Amino acid sequence: MNKILVVDDEVKSCDLIKRFLEAKGYDVITAGNGVEALEKLKRDLVDLIIADILMPEMDGFQLCRECKSNDTLRMIPFIFYTATYISKKDEEFALSLGAEKFIVKPLNLDKLLKIMKTTIKECRSAAPKTPKILIKEDEVYLAGYSKRLVAKLEKKVLDLEKEIKLRKKMEEDIIKTQKLESLSILAGGIAHDFINFLLIILGNIMRAKGCTNPKEKNF
Fold first, then answer.
1. At what angle do helices 60-68 and 34-43 cross, to 10 degrees?
2. CB-based burial of residue 166 (10 Å sphere; 0-12 exposed, 13-18 middle, 19+ buried)?
3. What is the pTM of this model?
4. Which of 65, 119, 197, 203 is the least buried, fewest Cβ under 10 Å from its Cβ?
5. How are strands ordered across the β-sheet holding 48-51?
6. Which string of DSSP letters, residue by residue, matches the chain?
7. CB 28 within 8 A of CB 37
8. Which InterPro entries does the UniProt entry name for this protein (predicted)?
9. 117/115 Cα distance (integer angstroms)
């Protein structure tokens, strides 16, 4: 039975993959971030690691580098499964760390399982990959890592600005709607009061002419 380590801080996503793989006969352990994953790998060696990238404490990039620079863990095939880092540059950096696959969420779980099976089979029949970036200085890794973080942060800022503009427009539309509704209610109230006021005047005129019904036209 193959043992899989699923690393994701999104509990629902992690549990979904765990239940799916267990139903297919796999032994699955989970971790909420890279630090927790490394602790579990000290106790349990697994046949495959599938990890998200954006996580607290230690993200997927750092986890992959730690695994691929460890003589024991580097033999374990590593798959990135991400919904946040999805650009071509992100993929290139991930693969340069030694990851076997880079998959963008969401993906049909049956397709994900097929990729996992293929990856495990390929890694068992081939020599372990040497991470390109580990051949270089740490500064090179940090530079590449920082670029990915900055690029993601810039995108998040742009997304946030768009969200703020959208929310502001929605609020303005709501205020306009509320103002129109208030104006309509006010206009309705004024019209009602105005009609009543005219009826009072008309009634007074009628009474002055000796007519008791304000609707009569004999004046």
1. 30
2. exposed
3. 0.67
4. 197
5. 27-31, 3-7, 48-51, 78-82, 101-104
6. --EEEEE-S-HHHHHHHHHHHHHTT-EEEEESSHHHHHHHHHH---SEEEE-S--SSS-HHHHHHHHHTSTTGGGS-EEEEESS--SHHHHHHHHHTT-SEEEESP--HHHHHHHHHHHHHHHHSSPPPPPGGGGS-HHHHHHHHHHHHHHHHHHHHHHHHHHHHHHHHHHHHHHHHHHHHHHHHHHHHHHHHHHHHHHHHHHHHHHHTT-S-TT----
7. no
8. Bact_response_regulator, CheY-like_superfamily, Sig_transdc_resp-reg_receiver
9. 5
**Both tokens assigned to 139:** 């500064």
Q: Can you give the pLDDT at residue 92?
A: 92
CB distance 76 to 45 below 8 Å: yes
Q: How many CA atoms lie within 13 A of 89 on its CB side?
A: 9
Strands 78-82 and 101-104: parallel
For 56, residues 6+ apart whose C-beta sits below 8 A from its C-beta are: 9, 32, 33
Residue ranges of domains in the chain: 3-135
The answer to whether 34 and 63 are in contact (CB under 8 A) is yes
Average pLDDT over residues 61-76: 92
In degrees, rounded to 5, the angle at the alpha carbon of residue 95 between the alpha carbons of residues 115 and 32 is 70
Report the topology of domain 3-135.
Rossmann fold (3.40.50)
Do residues 131 and 68 touch, judged by C-beta distance below 8 A? yes
Distance CA 182, CA 169 (A): 20
